[in-house]
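S1.2 Input.
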Amino acid sequence: MSAMILGLALALIRRGEGLKQNEAAVRIGIPASLLSAYEHGDPRLTLEKLEAVVEAMGVPAERVSERIEMALFAATLTLPAPFPPVGVSEEVRRRVEAAAARAGRIAFETALQEYHRAARAAQARKERRRAEVLWARLKGRTHSARLALVEEDPKYQTWALAERLCAESERAAAGDPQQALELADLALRVAELVTGEPAWRSLLAGYVWAFLGNARRVASDLPGAEKAFCQARKLWEEGAAADFGLLDGSRLLDLEASLLREERHMTAALERLEQALALHPTGAGRGRILLKKGYTLEQMGSYEASVEALQEAAPWINRERDPRWYLGLRFTWVACLCHVDRHEEAEEALPELRALTEQPEQAMDRVRLCWLTGRVAGGLGRTAEGIEALAAARAAFAEKKIRYDEALVSMELAGLYLEQGRTEDVKALVRQMEPVFRDQEVHAEARKALQLFRQVVELEIMTVELVRRLAGYLYRAQHNPELHFES
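S1.3 Output.
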């Protein structure tokens, strides 16, 4: 819709309130010059901006569509005749009138669609604000108390609350799988209680089932997660007729991609992410999907491609709005830079990572930062500094019994020891790694590579080159248990 029509609608609303431009500008909180520009057709005035300005003026949002209609009518009254009627044949006149009728019908249908879209968007914002209030009331309660309240009180039975609970489930998944499951289950119950057209209810249920699948994934119930995503796809497709863009359909794709990545179906995961990207040409959703793509490529050992995806994601991920996404972006970015020997760039990012991992609950993030710091220092030739940082990270992983990461850090540490000619320290490191060699969580192919490492150390034929090859293999094999090491 043109800014001129929107500006005229704004002027009609202001005058209807009996406000002068300077009075309205004070009420809205913008300069009078900007309000005047809006009313005269400034292209910065969009429908969303008009709704926000009217709301700040203290006028009901539904007044907007009425005044736009008046503005459209006023505009048609001032349109000049396309040509003088003199000398026009009857046949030409009929053609002109038919064309005008078609154009009027198209304009009407276009305006009607825009009004419906604007009305849905305004109502959705209102419903989501209400869902925030409802979640605040539920947040401090137990799962059973939340469920009872949802069952008993119809005001909790809304699509927006189901959507909000899904978001909370995904947020909880990072640290508390059980809480993620409970929130997803609650969201599903809310969706089941929502009233409305069957297609809409099916679409909503499909959306929620995807988050239940994600919660099952983080709870290590992969078969249950697969069933949940099958149900999500089925219900979403059945509700396709009600898909007006209110719910983000890309979530079914990017959440399933996380499951496929965990199941080591990397190519299928990337396919889902590409499909999700097609639904998000811009915005925070695109940043989230690109971040997952970069992380998937990093796990595949496609480090250069991962860096490219993360570079594309960066402008869409806001540090204040999405702190965990932002931290994940920066961590994966620095790790990939180390893999492709761009250690100078990696070092530039370390101060920001230190600032992002200062909270007490981020102890493991700080361990991984210590690991990255050692890798960067070693890559830049500061061997002693690298050894100190890697040794500290290795000790932390050993204490927590995170064996695979302990093996990775140990391999990098052995490489730095060898650069200094400290073969006895490498032998001592192998003895300290005994729990790693026995741990069944380290998959069979990786254990074979580690056994080779132990043998060449005992035979004193270890080289820096072989250590680097073994470390590179362990990184790639971490998410590909079938990958063999070619010795």
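S1.4 Remarks. The mean pLDDT is 87.
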